[in-house]
Design goal:
Elements lengths: L24 H33 L8 H22 L4 H21 L9 H23 L42 H25 L5 H21 L2 H8 L6 H21 L7 H7 L3 H14 L7 H16 L16 H27 L9 H20 L10 E6 L14 H33 L5 E3 L4 E5 L2 H8 L4 E7 L24 H5 L2 H8 L7 E6 L20 E2 L14 H10 L11 E6 L8 H12 L20 E4 L15 H9 L3 E5 L21 E6 L22 E4 L3 E4 L5 E4 L2 H18 L7 H11 L20 H4 L6 H8 L1
Parallel strand pairs: 5-7, 5-8, 6-7, 8-9, 9-10, 10-11
Antiparallel strand pairs: 1-3, 1-4, 2-3, 12-13
Helix pairs in contact: 1-2, 1-3, 1-8, 2-3, 3-4, 3-7, 3-8, 4-6, 5-10, 5-11, 5-12, 5-13, 6-11, 8-9, 8-10, 9-11, 9-12, 10-12, 17-24, 18-21, 21-24, 22-24
């Protein structure tokens, strides 16, 4: 007999007990770990790149272990919190977040370590990046994969109306019944969103097609392979399991998926971006890849709403295309602080990255509105495919129109074993006539050796379409080609070695011409007076008349009022191997300034009565072994515009003195002996060669880039107004030579700039042309001294006055073996040198 309140009545249905809602702490922990991971990874990449740049700017050797250490520190600091996040919380979404970030950190560590490869071997780096990314895509999911989300129960034939007040587990799996494992793919939704992912990837490429430029054919192909491999790796990290956990449900919340899933995916993509590309190339990827996480999350919404997954194809396509931009359209060696002062490659890379960031943000908004609305759905496959086609056509038009179409890879300089024998060149007597006879004989021997030894190799190179350009000053040939051509050439018996001849990629717009903002001096500049050159003019009546100084630099503004009257003129006084200009011009300003310090009028030049000829061997402040040879050949035997250096050279028109405010470091392709035959030939021809010591002091042994290291080149350091050697002035000792030879004013030197103005600059670049001007004064005062290089050097050293040596510290090692390795013979004294020469 039943008793109680329900006696005689049926029992009520049992009350549903809602599953326990996870607390907020796992989410808080995920937010903190994500912020910590970003705070560790981004500064690590910036610090590593800046360390690379500082060592490059100061002339120190590249540290091979730098990037592996940066990778190890980043992983050690961030991996433990990510691992705890992957193991401890009960929330499946939080654990999936931790697993994705842990895998991203491991990928960052492995990929960043590849930067130990030298930047000059970019093709080898890209190949290693592609192989490593594919290997990681296979291995990482097996290491960090968590349990698959449990399949959702099959929907009832007649589902009841949704109860908005019913709680649900936000981490429950989504969709209808599926086999154990990854959520099933919905073919219709996948096809549409894959095409939308392709369209989004092409949209991110638009800024790079506009502002960037491709390298060589092999380099571009390997960049495409590396980008595709990075896309595959991203698909392995952000796979169907990841998106199923982040989606939650049922019921699904597309807005939550875009916001939360986009943030989590963005951090994972940031870690991938940090490891993608050589030092410098990863910086724009850090801006453009992470925001694409929101677009990827939105692309998952239609398939998840249909009860399945969009698969990894959208992730692979979008990330792969986005990574292709910085990998292929920018040379990491040109993303450098050395070019940051003007609107050069770093500027345009920043513009492309900022535009890519804006595109990624627009994609996130557009795809979120289109796909993640409560009733949103992907467009049909034909519409999505047509969208991708339109963007592909747009990218092609941008690349062929305002972009820089074509391939702009590096070239190779093939140095032959046999160099010309210049021993026993007849002296030819003293003075200009003797110098000219020596120059003619040197030119004859150099050309004859090159013609005889290069003939067979040049035929083979021409037959292969490698566009050979022969040189005689160094018996060498510049050709197109990558690693395979380099290996083939290195095995030929007549070849000594093969160097990279760097080539700058073109810019979408030229940098503005550097101009001065100071007026002309009212009298002799302080540096001219410190050298006592003004006393040579006034008391000895010598201004350099009859002497020609050759300037190999960024060019010369031939219309500047301080330089126009000194141009020698004729059809063989100007050569521009970069842009083939027919009249003296200068975009960078460096060459105008240095030429003004040597022969400029109005008080800025040491030898205002001398004439000048010019050649452009620097473009945007960088050069290559071949461009340096172009100008040195022109200085030995000038030839008319469009002429052949081998047959049209005029050695009797060679300038008597050369000023060279440049050096050829390994990053430009030179090895220590690259230009040694050229320096020997100019010396044998009786041409006085002056070179700047470099600006990598106060470190000892910092005179290390040719031609300043060669014994037959007169190397000049820099001092300030107080006759103290400037801290930046490079020092010896140099093996086999006493360097620097002398010092000259190089701090706050006023000289000409393009456009008629003047500017004050610092550097040994400013000091070297003043010594060239002193030599012009000496030879003008005593023409019999022309071509007598040894006596001229001895006079310059013997008449120099003491200059104060400076040191990096008080440690004995910083004394560089003696003050002579810091200040040379001392500060040049023009008055004393000219008096001794007379």
């Amino acid at each position: 007999m039943e008793v109680g309140p329900y006696a005689g009545r049926p029992f009520p249905p049992p009350m549903a007990v809602p599953p326990a809602r996870p607390g907020p702490w796992p989410v808080v922990a995920a937010v903190l770990v994500g912020c910590w991971t970003v705070a560790v990874a981004v500064p690590g990449e910036l610090v590593g790149w800046l360390a690379d740049q500082v060592r490059l700017a100061t002339g120190l050797d590249r540290v091979v272990w730098l990037w592996p250490v940066v990778a190890a520190v980043t992983v050690l600091l961030a991996a433990v919190p990510a691992l705890l996040l992957a193991l401890l919380p009960r929330s499946g979404a939080v654990r999936a977040t931790g697993r994705a970030w842990l895998a991203g950190l491991l990928a960052l560590g492995a990929l960043t370590g590849l930067r130990a490869l030298p930047p000059v071997h970019h093709e080898a780096y890209l190949a290693a990046l592609a192989a490593t990314a594919v290997l990681l895509a296979v291995v990482l999911p097996r290491l960090v994969r968590g349990p698959a989300p449990a399949p959702a129960p099959a929907p009832a034939p007649t589902p009841p109306a949704a109860n908005p007040d019913r709680p649900h587990d936000p981490d429950a799996p989504a969709g209808p019944a599926a086999p154990a494992g990854s959520p099933r793919t919905v073919p219709a939704a996948q096809a549409a969103v894959t095409w939308l992912a392709v369209a989004a990837g092409l949209a991110t490429l638009l800024p790079w097609a506009w502002f960037g430029a491709l390298g060589g054919l092999l380099e571009t192909g390997l960049a495409a392979a590396a980008a595709a491999a990075v896309g595959v790796l991203a698909g392995a990290l952000l796979d169907a399991r990841f998106w199923a956990h982040l989606a939650g449900g049922p019921p699904h919340r597309p807005a939550r998926l875009v916001l939360v899933g986009g943030l989590v995916a963005g951090v994972a993509l940031l870690l991938l971006a940090a490891g993608t590309g050589q030092s410098g190339a990863q910086l724009p990827a850090l801006l453009t890849l992470p925001p694409l996480g929101f677009a990827l999350a939105a692309l998952q919404a239609p398939a998840l709403r249909a009860g399945g997954s969009a698969g990894t194809a959208p992730v692979r396509w979008l990330v792969g295309l986005a990574a292709f931009g910085p990998l292929a359209f920018a040379d990491p060696e040109e993303i450098t602080l050395l070019l940051a002062a003007t609107r050069d490659v770093p500027f345009w890379v920043a513009v492309a990255a900022a535009a890519g960031l804006a595109v990624a943000a627009l994609l996130a908004i557009a795809y979120g509105v289109l796909l993640a609305r409560p009733r949103g759905r992907a467009p049909s496959r034909p519409v999505a495919a047509a969208t991708a086609g339109v963007l592909l056509a747009g990218a092609a038009l941008v690349y062929l129109g305002p972009g820089q179409p074509g391939l702009h890879g590096e070239r190779l300089l093939v140095v032959l074993r046999e160099q010309a024998d210049l021993g026993g060149v007849p002296a030819g007597g003293a003075g200009q006539a003797g110098r000219d006879a020596r120059a003619r004989e040197v030119y004859r021997r150099l050309v004859a050796t090159a013609e005889r030894t290069q003939a067979g190799l040049r035929r083979d190179l021409t037959r292969l379409g490698l566009d050979p350009t022969p040189y005689y000053l160094v018996n060498a040939i510049e050709v197109d080609g990558g690693p395979a051509v380099r290996a083939w050439l290195s095995r030929r018996p007549e070849v000594d070695r093969v160097l990279l001849s760097q080539r700058l990629r073109p810019l979408p717009a030229g940098a503005p011409t550097s101009r001065g903002d100071q007026p002309a001096p009212s009298g002799p500049a302080w540096n001219v007076s410190l050298l006592r050159a003004d006393r040579v003019w006034s008391q000895l009546g010598v201004t350099g008349a009859g002497i020609v100084v050759g300037s190999s630099d960024s060019g010369v503004d031939g219309r500047h009022p301080a330089l126009a009257g000194g141009f020698r003129g004729g059809d063989d006084s100007w050569y521009d191997p970069w842009d083939h200009t027919r009249a003296p011009t200068d975009q960078g300003g460096h060459g105008t300034h240095t030429t003004g310090s040597a022969v400029g009028r109005d008080g800025i030049g040491v030898a205002p009565g001398a004439s000048w000829v010019g050649c452009v061997n620097l473009d945007r402040n960088l050069g290559s072994p071949a461009r340096y040879l172009d100008c040195l050949q022109f200085m030995l035997a000038p030839f008319p515009a469009g002429g052949d250096p081998f047959t049209d050279g005029r050695p009797e028109r060679a300038p008597q003195v050369l000023t060279n405010s440049w050096g050829c470091p390994p990053i430009e392709g030179c090895d220590p002996a690259a230009l040694r035959p050229a320096a020997d030939a100019l010396d044998a021809a009786g041409i006085f060669v002056v070179a700047a010591a470099g600006n990598t002091g106060p470190y000892c042994r910092s005179i290390e880039d040719p031609p300043a290291t060669y014994p037959d080149v007169f190397t000049v350091g820099a001092t300030d107004r107080d006759r103290q050697v400037a801290d930046f002035s490079s020092r010896g000792p140099v093996p086999g030579a006493a360097k620097p030879d002398v010092v000259a004013p190089g701090v706050g030197v006023l000289s000409a700039m393009p456009g008629g103005g003047y500017a004050t600059l610092d550097g040994t670049s400013m000091a070297a042309p003043q010594v060239a001007g002193v030599v012009a004064l000496m030879w003008s005062a005593n023409p019999a001294l022309i071509g007598d290089l040894e006596r001229t050097r001895r006079i310059l050293r013997d008449t120099a006055v003491p200059a104060g040596a400076t040191y990096a510290s008080r440690k004995p090692a910083d004394a560089c073996g003696g003050d002579a390795n810091i200040a040379g013979a001392g500060l040049v004294d023009a008055y004393a040198a000219v008096s001794a020469a007379r």
